[in-house]
Amino acid sequence: MGVTDWSHNSWYHSLLLRQIPQRAERVLDVGCGSGTLARRLAATVPQVDAFDSSPVMLAEARVGAPANLSLQVADALTVELPEDAYDAVVSVAVLHHLPLVEALPRMAGWLRPGGVLAAVALPRADLPRGLPVEAAAAVAHHGLGLAFSALRPMTGADLFRHEDSHGDMPVSDGALTTREVRTAAEAVLPGVQVRRLLFWRYLLVWRKPL
Ligand SMILES: C[S@@+](CC[C@H](N)C(=O)[O-])C[C@H]1O[C@@H](n2cnc3c(N)ncnc32)[C@H](O)[C@@H]1O
């Protein structure tokens, strides 16, 4: 990890938070890792449930977790959760670890009618058509990385610094392009929106019909 490296997952936390319905009472974070997003959610949502299949990441997430954040070690493909229970189901950098046709219907089932599924995950590069976005991402990544590393000592702010647990985090590359994700997701969640984000991520948003 270089000195100008920074977390694209953290960069997109605010975008995900904006997808959550107003006055949401109960939100689920799938594959919460060390719990950074879950803790942010718990600052405004009365009840946040979160799980991850890695006991190491869950142990990190438990450190300093607030009382309204429930955490468990569980696998997205087998965990038993209440149906129609959540105002939002969110996930960062996890969907590309999972078979979409199995995972998406499970996540949709946990949503109440009108609830929102919002996930950011990693696509495979779509070349050559995706060359302009790949080039723009590389330039912006390095420019922002230089700016963040210069500003951190001056401001004391984290500015998308990788968490200390970053090295322990199970990671994988995206196997599907954003277009392939859109096609696979549309087959199981009609009306789903999938769009490429600049920094090597896509955003998937689906609202459960009333
Ligand atoms: C790249 S990390 C992202 C963690 C966290 N969402 C974040 O943004 O920092 C991917 C996480 O997905 C978890 N994961 C992978 N497969 C999973 C599964 N089948 N069920 C639950 N969690 C899973 C991993 O343990 C890991 O913590």
Q: What does it look like?
A:
This protein is of the alpha/beta class. It folds into two domains: 8-124 and 172-207, Vaccinia Virus protein VP39 (Rossmann fold, 3-Layer(aba) Sandwich), CATH 3.40.50; 131-168, no CATH class. Helix content is 33%, strand content 22%. The chain contains seven helices and seven strands. The chain has helices at 8-11, 13-17, 36-42, 55-62, 100-109, 131-155, 178-188, and strands spanning 26-30, 47-52, 69-73, 86-92, 111-121, 193-197, 201-207. A seven-stranded mixed β-sheet has the order 3-2-1-4-5-7-6, with helices on both faces. Strand 6 (193-197) and strand 7 (201-207) form a beta hairpin. It is globular and about 45 Å long. The N and C termini lie far apart (45 Å). The mean pLDDT is 95. S-adenosylmethionine is lined by residues 9, 31-33, 36-37, 52-54, 57, 75-77, 92-94, 97-98, 169-171.
What is this structure's SSE topology?
Blueprint: H1 8-11, H2 13-17, E1 26-30, H3 36-42, E2 47-52, H4 55-62, E3 69-73, E4 86-92, H5 100-109, E5 111-121, H6 131-155, H7 178-188, E6 193-197, E7 201-207
Helix pairs in contact: 5-7
Bound molecules: S-adenosylmethionine.
Residues 9, 31-33, 36-37, 52-54, 57, 75-77, 92-94, 97-98, 169-171 line the site of S-adenosylmethionine.
What can be said about this structure in brief?
The chain is an alpha/beta fold.
Assess the beta-strand content as a share of residues: 15-25%
Low-confidence stretches: none
Assign the CATH topology of the largest domain.
Answer: Rossmann fold
What small ligands are held by the chains? S-adenosylmethionine
Oligomeric state of shown chains: single chain
Q: Largest sheet, described in full?
A: 7 strands, mixed
Continuous helix count:
7
Taking Cα atoms only, what radius of gyration do you get, to the nearest Å?
Answer: 17 Å
| CATH architecture assignment of the largest domain | 3-Layer(aba) Sandwich
